[in-house]
Amino acid sequence: PVGACRQCLVDIPDAGNGRGFPKPQASCTIPVAEGMVVETQNSTAVKAQHGIMEFLLVNHPLDCPVCDKGGECPLQNQAMSHGQGETRFEGTKRTFPKPINLSPNVLLDRERCIVCQRCTRFAAEIPGDPGIALIQRGAQQQIGIAEDKPFSSYFSGNVIQICPVGALTSDDYRFRARPFDLVSTPSVAEHDACGAAIRIDHRRGKVMRRLAGNDPEVNEEWISDKDRFGFRYAVRDRLTSPMIREDGELRPASWLEAVAVAAAGLAGAGSVGVLPGGRLTLEDAKAYATFARDTLRTPHIDFRARPLSEEETGFLRSRVAGTSLTYADLDAADHVVLAGLEPEDEAGTLFLRLRKANKSGLRITTLSPYASEGSRKLGAEVVLTAPGAEKDALSQVSGVTEASVILVGERMATSPGAYSAAAELADR
What we know:
alpha+beta
């Protein structure tokens, strides 16, 4: 706790046990002690809270209707509950040039910033990318980046969501909709196998933005930038209406006509195959499998973009690979071995969970041809291996116990014998 915004001031009077404070204190920074009396709503606390809110709004723009955060702004809520009805400030509010590009996706409106340090703390503590920091001093203190060094992070979009004001905004969403215009739908991110919970906000049938969902068992409250910003593919170069081919030419059709033609074609086909792809959730994959087997009466359904080798097939059917593994198992593990897997690039949620567990003492070993930046952030022990030589490196990994976890990446498919070596290591 840094006690930056000071809005949680409380009165802790002396109850005769030496636990009191002569002035209001930021409650987020004070540990609870035996016999402590905390007043949150007496005259002293309320006066302090109102005073801090007045200070926060001295230079803050009061243009909530045009602010991207208007309608879902914690500062707006606090101002309604603890702010004055009218301002006593008669000067001119300071302004800055805007917006400032912190990265291709994140824009900064400096005059809205209340220097709460949520963004800087997130960048340094969660993904380990301290590319955004407080610059200047005193009244000129503000959020910034180094010259010609954009805020490059796989998770930079999270600072937009946790910003309590409209200071950090999304280049993709900025001034395109208001929160009360949006319809929210819970969903699951599709860009990797992590199953991160997301919230899709759409307006008149068009997706406007994606936000991280709150799922403590999976992604907690963070998502990668791929999951947050990578949704425009759904509307680019896509058909806007069903098309039916007649005499070698495509023509627009209604959905009822298209479904009828598709049903007739499937009913008259001698053999049907279903290839839904590998980016489906378990629920969607189950629905496709049920549709293929019960409705189309076909056993030909697959998600793979390429045929698997006998070794891969055997590994996926083995007792080891069939073990149910959860993120809670990662939190409880004493050693994680990453074989041909770069979680920061390939599985953002997995990377954040591993980094969090590493802070609590988790040992991480990664087999890779090079020492990546993600390995450094994880505090991982890097075992350098030539491409194709992972099998020998796996057999030499030490410190694997019953509480260890072995995560095998798809890149191991190019290393003959690597899957078998991983299974042998797990059995041993």
